[in-house]
């Protein structure tokens, strides 16, 4: 395992009641705000809970690794796209592959490790996520390390 | 003076303010501690409490606070000349908004991520929380009213914007189906959606849609018809599940926000447009609102906005990885909104063309208020032309941006109103109001629609009360900011630190707001504007209540401060 190397996992999922460009009414619904019907964003809560389980499983399994886990809303494209691009380039992917990762990464749900999208469009089970991340990290390990 | 010089000076001021003033706040006032365990770490669950990179968090925070309000306020306020508006936007951002936004975030972080309503109850008293909810109720009512008028003005002035602004609805629904049902990647569909939206602008220009005929047939004003259509749309839109329209449209809005900022500032940089408006307008007609105190409520968002405290507390505070990041997320969030206000100000003073055009557009306060968003879109059109985009297309582009932002605000606002009405129904024990969503939505729509139409139902052009409504909206927003600043100031004071950074903007804000409300009472009475008089009177009472609560909170805090030793631990 490449312990000296810092890896980045990006978990993409919508944040409940995040509303872009709503100005005065941004983030006024959902569970954590005093106003608004919490049920409005029930579907987001379900996804958040599922991705939360993935987050906790990864944190627990990769406890002793230098892995940064970031949870980001897919609407935060000004951060998400450059980050996937940077990680993918660092990894040496081709331009075509980089584009594919960005396209799949900006999704309702995605799990991205160092610029490579492992899951897109759905939240994996915690076990599947941990297993996929482990395999990918091992595959990335430099020969002879 | 070339507008680009103003941009450079203001951005330099923001840079220096961030570099030095926010550092002073971080080190001496809020005493940010890198080793403090933030709620994101203390309760880390990957759901609500998630330690988040400060750049990610800034993206979430800024897109939530930005919107149409920092565009409209400065577009009206340049009526008094560009310099007073510019000074208030710049100094307000640096000394009021930055302090307020960063402070709200810090106090929430230090209180386990509680939202500002709960903090108001805990730091001031439970009664102040009731005050907070009442202010929010009026704020939402006025938000929905003013944004309906803003949209109606834009539809009336830009019939070419109707098709693109309407087209965004089916486009968003298709994206929503693709993303939420199909679970497909969303980037390409969102980019295609934005491209289709802008490609539809020439179609909109070729087939402008006007409702003048309908208005004539009904014997009313065009704007009245648009306002009714907009509220009818909002009634239906707010009944839809958010994943069907509201959230998918967000993907388009998030692109539009940054595209609009890029067009404005690149256009200014490339075009070297000169500011044609006077620095200080000395040709103000008798009877116009005076710069003191009305400037400070006309520009709320963009100089200081109470709603930022709602965004900062509650959610952003649960994601702050490191307490020191509060400086970047909170203070820079305020700077971001101030930059949007700056862009609006310059669009209306430099992008508007020659001095004669400006004088005509800002001949009196009524004309300035009614034409403000039109002046903004005109200015953005001019900046867009500097980038090779046809000016007429640029105007429609800007109109579509403001309309979609305002539409999102109204969609959210009506949902919130409905929920508050349901809560009121429970308090007063009126069962239909607690259970019947059709009824609560109708009530939630009718109240702001009444305000939006008042008193201009078919009257003379310019007889609409938009300028007055906007000022009332500004007062409620400033009162929300005042309440949040009181919470932050008391929190700082009880920790034996110097609360001057909060008390100065708080005192200024409350003084200007109360003074403005008082002056408006007389104005509305003399003009026989009874509905506005009642609304103003209620907000005035809320302002006085807030001042009393603030003074009482400081008196209690003095006792707490006496007991605590200087240099005591923050918590």
Keywords:
heterodimer, A: 145 residues, alpha+beta, Glutaredoxin, 41% helix
Overview of the structural elements:
The complex is a heterodimer of chains A (145) and B (571). Chain A starts with 6 loop residues before the first strand and ends in a 5-residue tail after the last helix. Chain A has helices at 42-61, 77-90, 95-105, 126-140, and strands spanning 7-13, 67-72, 109-113, 116-120. Chain A has a single domain (7-140), classed as Glutaredoxin, CATH 3.40.30. In chain A, strands 2-1-3-4 form a four-stranded mixed sheet, sandwiched between helices. Helices cover 41% and strands 16% of the residues of chain A. Chain A has 145 residues and is α+β, with helices and mostly antiparallel strands. The relative contact order of chain A is 0.20. Chain B is mainly alpha-helical. Chain B has one domain (3-563). Helix content of chain B is 75%, strand content 0%. Chain B contains 23 helices and no strands. Chain B has helices spanning 3-29, 39-42, 54-65, 69-77, 82-109, 116-124, 126-157, 162-181, 187-206, 212-218, 222-237, 246-271, 291-298, 307-312, 325-349, 355-361, 365-386, 391-427, 431-435, 437-453, 466-493, 500-527, 530-563. Residues 456-462 of chain B have low confidence and may be disordered. Classes of the chains: A alpha+beta (145), B mainly alpha (571). Chains A and B meet through helix 1, strand 2, helix 2 and helix 3 of A and helix 3, helix 6, helix 7, helix 9 and helix 12 of B.
């Amino acid at each position: 395992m490449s312990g000296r190397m810092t890896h980045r996992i990006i978990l993409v999922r919508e944040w409940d009641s995040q509303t872009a460009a709503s100005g005065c009414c941004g983030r006024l619904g959902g569970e954590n705000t005093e106003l608004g019907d919490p049920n409005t964003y029930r579907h987001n809560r379900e996804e958040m809970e599922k991705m939360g389980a993935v987050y906790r499983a990864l944190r627990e399994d990769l406890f002793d690794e230098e892995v940064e886990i970031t949870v980001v809303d897919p609407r935060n494209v000004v951060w998400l796209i450059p980050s996937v691009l940077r990680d993918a380039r660092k990894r040496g992917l081709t331009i075509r592959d980089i584009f594919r990762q960005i396209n799949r990464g900006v999704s309702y749900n995605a799990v991205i490790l160092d610029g490579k999208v492992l899951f897109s469009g759905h939240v994996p089970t915690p076990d599947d996520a941990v297993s996929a991340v482990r395999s990918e990290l091992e595959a990335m390990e430099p020969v002879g390390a | 003076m070339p507008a680009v010089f103003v941009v450079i000076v203001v951005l330099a001021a923001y840079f220096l303010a961030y570099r030095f003033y926010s550092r002073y706040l971080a080190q001496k006032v809020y005493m940010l501690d890198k080793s403090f365990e933030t709620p994101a770490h203390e309760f880390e669950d990957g759901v609500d409490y998630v330690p988040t990179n400060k750049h990610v968090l800034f993206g979430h925070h800024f897109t939530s606070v930005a919107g149409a309000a920092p565009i409209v306020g400065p577009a009206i306020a340049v009526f008094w000349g560009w310099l007073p508006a510019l000074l208030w936007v710049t100094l307000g951002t640096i000394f009021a908004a930055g302090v307020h936004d960063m402070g709200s975030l810090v106090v929430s972080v230090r209180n386990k991520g509680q939202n500002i309503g709960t903090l108001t109850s805990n730091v001031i008293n439970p009664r102040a929380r009731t005050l907070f909810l009442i202010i929010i109720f009026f704020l939402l009512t006025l938000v929905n009213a003013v944004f309906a008028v803003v949209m109606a003005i834009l539809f009336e002035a830009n019939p070419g914007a109707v098709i693109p602004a309407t087209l965004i609805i089916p486009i968003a629904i298709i994206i929503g189906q693709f993303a939420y049902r199909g679970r497909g990647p969303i980037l390409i569909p969102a980019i295609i959606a934005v491209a289709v939206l802008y490609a539809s602008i020439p179609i909109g220009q070729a087939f402008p849609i006007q409702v003048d005929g309908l208005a004539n047939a009904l014997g009313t004003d065009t704007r009245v018809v648009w306002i009714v259509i907009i509220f009818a749309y909002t009634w239906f839109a707010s009944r839809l599940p958010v994943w069907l329209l509201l959230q998918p449209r967000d993907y388009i809005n998030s692109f539009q926000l940054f595209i609009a900022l890029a067009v404005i500032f690149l256009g200014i940089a490339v075009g070297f447009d000169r500011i044609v408006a006077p620095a200080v307008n000395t040709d103000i007609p008798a009877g116009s609102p005076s710069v003191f105190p009305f400037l400070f409520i006309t520009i709320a968002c963009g100089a200081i906005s109470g709603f930022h405290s709602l965004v900062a507390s509650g959610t952003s505070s649960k994601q702050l990885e490191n307490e020191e990041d509060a400086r970047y997320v909170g203070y820079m969030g305020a700077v971001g909104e101030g930059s949007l206000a700056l862009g609006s100000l310059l669009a209306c003073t430099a992008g508007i063309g020659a001095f004669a055009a400006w004088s005509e557009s800002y001949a009196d306060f009524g004309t300035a208020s009614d034409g403000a968003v039109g002046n903004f879109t005109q200015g953005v059109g001019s900046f867009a032309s500097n980038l090779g985009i046809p000016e007429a297309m640029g105007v429609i582009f800007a109109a579509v941006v403001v309309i979609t932002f305002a539409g999102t605000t109204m969609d959210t606002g009506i949902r919130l109103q409905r929920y508050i009405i349901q809560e009121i129904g429970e308090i007063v024990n009126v069962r239909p109001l607690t259970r019947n969503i059709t009824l609560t939505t109708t009530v939630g729509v009718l109240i702001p629609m009444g305000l939006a139409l008042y008193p201009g139902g078919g009257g003379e052009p310019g007889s609409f009360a938009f300028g007055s409504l906007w000022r009332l909206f500004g007062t409620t927003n400033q009162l929300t900011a005042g309440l949040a600043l009181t919470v932050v100031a008391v929190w700082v004071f009880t920790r034996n630190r110097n609360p001057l950074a909060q008390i100065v903007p708080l005192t200024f804000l409350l003084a200007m707001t109360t003074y403005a409300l008082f002056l408006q009472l007389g104005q509305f009475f003399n003009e026989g504007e009874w509905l506005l008089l009642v609304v103003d009177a209620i907000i005035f009472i809320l302002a006085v209540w807030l001042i009393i609560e603030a003074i009482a909170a400081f008196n209690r805090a003095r006792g707490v401060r006496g007991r605590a030793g200087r240099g005591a631990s923050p918590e």
